[in-house]
Amino acid sequence: MEIRELQQRLDAFARERDWERYHTPKNLAMALAGEVGELLEVFQWLTPEESADVMNHPERAEAVSHEMADVLAYLLRLADVLDLDIAQALREKMELNALKYPAPAARDGDGA
Question: Which of 20, 75, 84, 90 has its CA 20 to 30 A from that of 27?
């Protein structure tokens, strides 16, 4: 499913429930932050090894899946409300990052 189709389905979902009045940029950004917090909660107190293995534990895997879906939904909804082409924004940011963090320098530990 394409990003635009996902956004259209999220918009229809909100309209069917008369939620678009709540879907202001501020509210969507705050909801996005809350969902990221819920995703972080899944990983809280796990060791690096446990966090790398999280998808091998059904309950944790389901929580990660659901929280990541919530994060994506709010991010896509926010982009739609702001009339931002999120795919284009990502492409542009990737190009900027490629310039900022050239592969040879990044491999030497100078990148993020």
Answer: 90
User: pTM score, two decimals?
Assistant: 0.89
CA-based nearest residue to 69, from 96, 28, 32 = 32
Please check whether residue 3 is in contact with residue 76, taking contact to mean a CB–CB distance below 8 angstroms: yes
**Percent of the chain residues past pLDDT 70, beyond the cut:** 96
Q: Burial of 74 by CB count in 10 Å (0-12 exposed, 13-18 middle, 19+ buried)?
A: buried
Only one residue has tokens 């090894």, namely 49
What DSSP string describes the chain? --HHHHHHHHHHHHHHTT-TTT--HHHHHHHHHHHHHHHHHHHTT--HHHHHTGGGSHHHHHHHHHHHHHHHHHHHHHHHHTT--HHHHHHHHHHHHHHHS-HHHIIIII--
